[in-house]
Amino acid sequence: MRDEMFASAAGTGAAVNGEPIKVSGLGDVRSATLEIGWNSRSGMPAFIELVEKMTVGTGAGMIRSASGALGMAYVAAGRIDAYVENHINAWDVLAGLVLVREAGGYVSDFLAGNGLSEGNPILACTPQLRDVLVKASGIGEVSRAASSKI
Fold first, then answer.
1. Residue 88's closest CA among 106, 61, 74, 70?
2. In DSSP terms, which residues pair with 34 in a beta bridge?
């Protein structure tokens, strides 16, 4: 749609159309823009609860683009400050994990348990927003062992 190609590999940084990208670096959650993903596996009540925790609970603003992969890429590019979802599948998020991490961002431990085969919750954000968004969402810390598998 925007003729953009996001690319990254472990240890190489992240880029869009060959130009380096970085997460926004925003630290004030009340000025943050979060994308909150919806999925049928978790259902509407869990989505509404997450929206309430992430917006009313923190003061952040919310958008929806309907694409977890694009949401993760936009965090990496600094266009939004966080992406969070109660459940996402590996094929929608694995490339985004590398993009966000290589762009200097934080990603939760998506690969914990059976994340690769069954999916898991995800939180990706600026490092400055990590603590407040982990606390608000309940989506936990990144595991160094799991991170090294990507």
1. 70
2. 62, 82
All structural domains of the chain with their residue ranges: 6-147
pLDDT at position 66 is 81
Q: Which helix (H) or strand (E) holds 88?
A: strand 82-88
Class of domain 6-147: alpha beta
Closest by CA position to 68, among listed 104, 27, 97: 97
CB 79 within 8 A of CB 16: no
Bridge partner residues of 124 (DSSP): 83, 107
Q: In what order do the strands lie in the sheet with 82-88?
A: 61-63, 33-37, 82-88, 120-125, 106-107
pLDDT in tens, 32-81: 999 999 988 888 999 999 999 999 999 999 998 889 999 999 999 999 99
Q: In what order do the strands lie in the sheet with 19-21?
A: 6-8, 14-16, 19-21
Contact at 8 Å (CB) between 120 and 41?
A: no
